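Question (not urgent): is this output format expected?
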Amino acid sequence: MARNDPYAQFNFLVELDGVAAAGFTEVGGLAVESDVIEYRNGNEDATVRKLPGLRKYSNITLKRGYTANLELWKWRKTTEDGQTARRSGAIILLDEARQPVLRWIFREGWIAKYEGPALNSTTNEAAIESIEIAHEGLTLEA
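Got this back:
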């Protein structure tokens, strides 16, 4: 029987509008949930039925080392200027040979939150910027 090891979490790519966006160190928020609607039929004593309600997609958080590249800030600025640019994208998990194995695809995304780096003169760490992408759908493809 072949051994089926889990994939490493550090091997991933981020694509925005089909173009690889380099340098992200962390991705979070790949989550989907549904509201629970509780319902009871009038002819049943004490049984509560649970039905799926509205789907909710968590914001996707991306973090990367801060550089002179202002593309994320410019994308966020479209929302501040009232001309929100929506983009589709994907987070792609790679295997040890750097081949794609899983792809989380989001649609209609826009930057809901931009956070610049925390600056501290007493540390020796890279400056990190963070964004949260609000979106309207998440699918997983193998």
